[in-house]
Amino acid sequence: MPRCKGSKLDLAPAACPEATSPLSITRDSGGSPTSRHRAATLTAVGTTIALGAPAMKYLVLGTALGALATLTGAVSYRLGHHHPDVVSQALPPLEGGELISAASAPKVPPPLARTYATNVVLDVEIREHTKMLADGVSYTYWTFGDDTPGKFLRVREGDMIETHLKNHPDNTLAHNIDFHGATGPGGGGEASFVAPGHATTFSWRAMRPGLFLYHCVAAPAGLHIANGMYGLILVEPKEGLPAVDREYFVIQGEFYTSGKFGEAGPQRFAMAKALDERPEYVVFNGHVGSLMGDNALTAKVGERVRIYLGNAGPSLVSSFHIVGEIFDDVYGEGGIVANQHNVQTTVIPVGGSAMVEFTASVPGEYTFVDHSMFRAFNKGAMGTMRVTGHGDEMIYSGRTKEEAYQPGTKLERLLALTDTTGMVLDRDGLLTHGAQVFSSVCSACHQSNAEGLPNTFPPLAKSDFLMADKARAIGILQNGLKGEITVNGKKYHGEMPKLPLTDVDIASVLSYVRTNFGNQGETVAVADVHQLREHSTTSDGAPRQVAAR
């Protein structure tokens, strides 16, 4: 059990004499950190950190848990590696040194040109700072560097990675870093455990090629990962990877916020949701919309594209899919051999990775998602790739024809039962009939409470878009709507078809919605609808397309 003596914290089983304590933390007389190894049957590395009183409270619990993990790791490490010299003799010699090749998401540093192993220096600062998780939603991220995810790192098989980890003094918690590509206790987590205002250095050898996750593993590890402490490192094989035209990296992660998805304002971490594995946000590259709009990935027709994929979790498996593309090659679970071909969707386990390659053949905008669709459309796991160039109609024609298809609809039959042609309604009649139309038509998408579905169908309740322009609202019901709109500060992409509604139906349902669901507007006259219908058709009688505004 942990025993505190003055400025020393000893972590050892109660039954063990103090001389065999596997881990101790001390402070020398000058206040600088010191460490010491205790002779023991199974020796763990001693970690020493000089702390002020405010920081010590955050370290004690994490250090105690870390000590147990360290002892367990030492047992398995020592039992599984009887002849470390044999491994060491097989490693290539190191020549010179250089700073690590790194890039911020979604960019990837270029392939390494050198043909030898070297000492690579990695310098990482840990930050705890507030950033935007989604439009209007802020969150306190914990990050390796300036943002989530941490940078994409690129090294060569055989390299020695000299890692300098610095915990900014403004931070409140101890952190560390675990490289899945490292061989050793905790993947470096034990050696890198560092308190605010301190720095630690350790080195590890990239002995196995592949695509590996790195993340914080300080207790509780799930909390540190869920707050954004993760990234990817590629250990290139000695012979390199096949050449491609473009490379990107995308990593999926989860955020467990106190408020619901899209709830504005600062959000806190919600442990109860994390324990139930119910994230409010599942996102690519740390933020909602991080790979959409101006941030979309790009490619040209004919280019071969490789995407390095990671899944930090901490809880949910990812099913990565590009809508309208097929992966030529998939390097499953981060290995360096393409083990699947012609794949529609690839699974990325929590704490794992994959590489996918494809050739862009048709221009257009492609959406990529976690194919657990509610995560994509309702939690944020969505991005886009914009492909430019000339198409080939022998591969894909695009839309070649559109015409009316009118076999008779349930809605038309329903409305026929209450034929409104020539009907004259007073205000109460408009609202009563409007409630019927809303219930039978509008509520299917906008929901019975008119609040819509987040990121899918905009709200009609308390809608600034609906109430701002009565004529526009009439035109949408007459002719449909296609394109991006902004409702109550949020953007929606979709299409509303032209509905078989009479002028009385339109006047009634607009009057009903404009005077209910928190809206405070005037009713709509049937004559207004009729007048706009006459002006919203072309000379041949076809409806004019309503442009989103």
Short account of what is shown:
The chain is built from twelve helices and 28 strands. The protein has helices at 53-80, 84-90, 189-192, 221-226, 271-275, 373-378, 410-417, 427-446, 464-468, 470-479, 503-514, 526-535, and strands spanning 2-5, 8-11, 23-27, 33-34, 94-99, 101-103, 117-134, 137-144, 152-156, 160-167, 178-179, 198-205, 210-215, 230-236, 246-255, 265-267, 281-284, 297-300, 304-313, 318-322, 327-331, 340-343, 345-348, 352-359, 364-370, 382-388, 481-487, 490-496. The strands form six sheets. Strands 5, 7, 8, 10, 12 and 16 form a six-stranded mixed sheet that branches. A six-stranded mixed sheet has the order 17-15-19-24-21-22. It has a five-stranded mixed sheet with strand order 6-9-14-13-11.
Description:
This protein is of the alpha+beta class and 549 residues long. The protein contains twelve helices and 28 strands. It has four domains: 20-83, no CATH class; 94-243, Cupredoxins -  blue copper proteins (Immunoglobulin-like, Sandwich); 249-388, Immunoglobulin-like, CATH 2.60.40.420; 427-535, Orthogonal Bundle (Cytochrome Bc1 Complex, Chain D, domain 2), CATH 1.10.760. The strands form six sheets. Strands 5, 7, 8, 10, 12 and 16 form a six-stranded mixed sheet that branches. The termini are far apart.
